[in-house]
Amino acid sequence: MLAQRRANKWADKEWKKGKLVTRYKCNPLGTASHAKGLVQEKLGIETKQPNSGIRKCVRVRLLKNGKKITAFVPRDGSLNYVNENDEVLISGFGRRGHAVGDIPGVRFKVVCVAGVSLWGLWTNKKQKPHA
Predict the structure, then answer these.
(1) Could you give the number of structural domains in the chain?
(2) pTM of the complete model
(3) Which domain holds residue 1?
(4) Chain-centroid distance, C-alpha 97
(5) Model confidence over 90-104: pLDDT tens digits?
(6) For 104-122, what is the mean pLDDT?
């Protein structure tokens, strides 16, 4: 009975992920919660059905390992504060490593641009430093 229970544990997705440590091997951020990267390009991603619209995202190349990921830029008009080759700080986007809502394949969001919080830029409380 004990051997059968031990064998059946491997059928549980979450238990198996924890045992094999694949959530850290597959995650571009590794074990970190945030990571810095350089913006490669801006792009718009079409939403999944039944919604319609274009969600503003950026392609980011991470500084720590060179991997390229897609990150969502939250709030209306925030993409105007992000330029190509800017250094951005990204974090997870909820749902523990899965895509969120109607944006397919996007697992991260932009938090800071050039060391300044995106929320501060959006509310006009802070300014982006000029290089």
Answers:
(1) 2
(2) 0.85
(3) 1-31
(4) 8
(5) 999 988 888 899 999
(6) 96
Alpha-carbon span 92 to 71, nearest angstrom: 9
Q: Where are the beta strands (DSSP E) in 12-130?
A: 34-46, 54-62, 68-72, 87-92, 108-113, 116-117
Q: Note whether 53 and 95 are same-domain residues.
A: yes
Task: Give me the mean pLDDT over the 55-81 stretch.
Answer: 96
Cβ pair 40, 59 in contact under 8 A: yes
> Looking at the structure, do residues 12 and 60 belong to the same domain, yes or no?
no
CATH of the domain at 85: 2.40.50.140
User: In sequence order, what are the residues at sequence separation of 6 or more whose Cβ sits closer than 8 angstroms to the Cβ of residue 86?
Assistant: 38, 39, 113, 114
Say what the pLDDT of residue 61 is. Answer: 98
Residue 130 domain-assigned? no
Question: Residue 39 in 3-state DSSP?
Answer: strand
Nearest CA-CA partner of 114 in 60, 38, 33, 34: 38
Which residue's entry shows tokens 């720590």?
64
Mean pLDDT for 66-83 is: 96
**Whether residue 57 is found in the same domain as residue 81:** yes
Q: What is the pLDDT of residue 130?
A: 80
